[in-house]
Design goal:
The protein has helices at 3-6, 25-31, 34-37, 41-57, 63-82, 94-106, 119-155, 175-197, 219-225, 235-240, 243-269, 297-320, 335-358, 363-370, 377-386, 391-408, 417-423, 431-434, 437-443, 452-480, and strands spanning 160-165, 168-174, 202-203, 230-231, 277-278, 360-361. Helix 8 packs antiparallel against helix 11 (243-269). It is 62% helix and 4% strand. The chain binds arginine (ARG).
Length: 481
């Protein structure tokens, strides 16, 4: 490195001697990314410290310089943490902002840091570290919401409501059973993040710009220092792939879709027409015009933001689809949608947990809706099945009974044996007594059913699953520290 290059300060570009003119100001603004990739700062510095130590251990730079580099990088990290670091868009991205500041602090020795490294393997490393953390935070947020749902489910084992298909009353279910359904859904969401993390075990550092380095870098050492299992196997793949980011954004979008469905339900349930729940004041908003309004803005926003999460995913997929190997600057467009998706998910999970934790259940209103005797029509058909009647025939007979009730204003729940026999002779004497909501529940005692026994054992299993996820997350974040 020449003296004149070394003397370039924070405002001087690091492109080196090839360039003789300043960058056009619009181009400078157009290509700058530091206003968003500053989110990678701490990963960038972690990667640089590991890289500097490896360079020292390989005798590529003097030991004393390693100390200056590490000390300087730690001081820069501190400045960023405290908010005193001034980010300069003229320096384009977070990598060059940090390096320039390092040079201001420790002088020309800063010029040794980028030995055997390119911003291409550097940004890939930063992203892998970021994504590892992002998967853990997403799993934690999901776990928190699942825990809240499990607590609320435990409170409402005996609360009944109609289960719906086509938003039409279908069969009575326990509220616990209903919320356990979302706990299952969210469990798969968490698994997607855990699974994606298994593809973040290889360290990009040492891949250079595209084809590695002529220098004797110790790739395994930086990999281990940064908590990876091994170095990546192919330098060209390493600097040009963002598929794991796509995968994680896809997991985020799927989770947002699921939250959106839970939200939609809360919007419906909190309407006057349903009146099943009332959202807490802290999780609702009013109308600026209509004094009586209490609006479910939180679930509505979660529902709305799911669209943005899907959009982010599509945006990155579209950016990547036409790119030849290897690195192309288009790839800088990965970060804003990625960061936005992860932040949106984290916020949505948190507000949903708060919403569910604080909402009030109107058990009487739910019970009233569930007391609709029509919900027992399937049970009645199954009574005939037990008597040996083919299900289709039973379905037809009960259909006629339902039509009779609807047409004549009769109550399905209070038909006597003689009336039932008028529709099918196989109805046993005890059939009318079987038309009871409690019995209906308890008869659904298969695994996965809504009988008390089934729900309690599902809840039990879920609690164990939540405990082991909590332990897994605790040990993962301990390793990461
Ligand atoms: N800011 C760039 C990005 O996010 C870093 C890598 C730049 N590499 C390059 N060859 N220009 O992708």
């Amino acid at each position: 490195m020449t003296q004149s290059e070394d003397q370039k300060g924070a405002s001087g570009k690091l492109w080196g001697g090839r360039f003789s003119a300043q960058t056009n100001p619009t181009v400078e603004r157009f290509s700058a990314s530091v206003h968003f990739d500053r989110a990678l700062a701490r990963y960038d510095i972690r990667g640089s410290i590991a890289h500097a130590r490896m360079l020292g251990a390989q005798n590529l730079i003097p030991a004393a310089d390693v100390d200056s580099l590490v000390g300087g990088l730690e001081a820069v990290a501190q400045e960023i943490e405290e908010g005193s670091f001034s980010f300069d868009p003229a320096l384009e991205d977070i990598h060059m902002n940090i390096e320039a500041r390092l040079r201001e602090r420790i002088g020309p020795v800063a010029g040794r840091l980028h030995t055997g490294r390119s911003r291409n393997d550097q940004v890939a490393t930063d992203l892998a570290l970021y994504l590892r953390d992002a998967c853990l935070s997403a799993r934690q947020g999901i776990l928190d919401l699942r825990q809240v749902l499990a607590e609320r489910a435990a409170e409402h084992i005996d609360t009944v409501l109609p289960g719906y298909t086509h938003l039409q009353r279908a069969q009575p279910v326990r509220l616990a059973h209903h919320w356990l359904a979302f706990i299952e859904v969210l469990g798969r969401d968490a698994e997607r993040f855990a699974d994606a993390s298994t593809r973040l075990v290889a360290c990009p550092l040492g891949s250079g710009a595209i084809a590695g380095s002529t220098l004797p870098l110790d790739r395994a050492a930086t990999a281990h220092a940064l908590g990876f299992e091994r170095p990546t196997r192919n330098s060209m793949d390493t600097v040009s792939s963002r598929d794991v980011a796509v995968e994680i954004m896809s997991a985020a979008a799927i989770c947002m879709i699921n939250l959106s469905r839970l939200s939609e339900e809360l919007v419906i349930w909190s309407s006057t027409e349903f009146g099943f729940v009332e959202l807490a004041d802290a999780y609702s908003t009013g109308s600026s015009l209509m004094p009586q309004k209490k609006n479910p803005d939180v679930p509505e926003l979660v529902r709305g933001k799911s669209g943005r999460s899907i959009g982010n995913l599509v945006s990155l997929m579209t950016t990547l689809k036409g790119l030849p190997l290897t690195y192309n600057r288009d790839m800088q467009e990965d970060k804003e949608p990625l960061f936005d998706s992860m932040a949106t998910l984290a916020d949505s999970l948190e507000v949903m947990a708060g919403t569910v934790a604080t909402l009030q259940v109107n058990t009487a209103q739910m019970a009233l809706a569930a007391a609709d005797p029509m919900l027992l029509a399937t049970d009645l058909a199954e009574v005939l099945v037990v008597e040996g009647v083919p299900f289709r025939e039973a379905h037809e007979a009960v259909g006629q009974i339902v039509a009779h009730c609807v047409g004549g204003g009769h109550d399905l729940g209070t038909l006597d044996h003689a009336t039932l026999r008028g529709f099918h002779e196989a109805f046993p004497a005890g059939a009318p007594e079987l038309l009871d909501i409690e019995r209906s529940f308890e008869a659904r005692s298969l695994i996965g059913g809504t009988a008390k026994r089934s729900v309690l054992s599902a809840l039990d299993e879920i609690r164990q699953a939540l405990d082991s996820e909590a332990q897994a997350l605790e040990s993962a974040s301990r390793e990461d520290r």
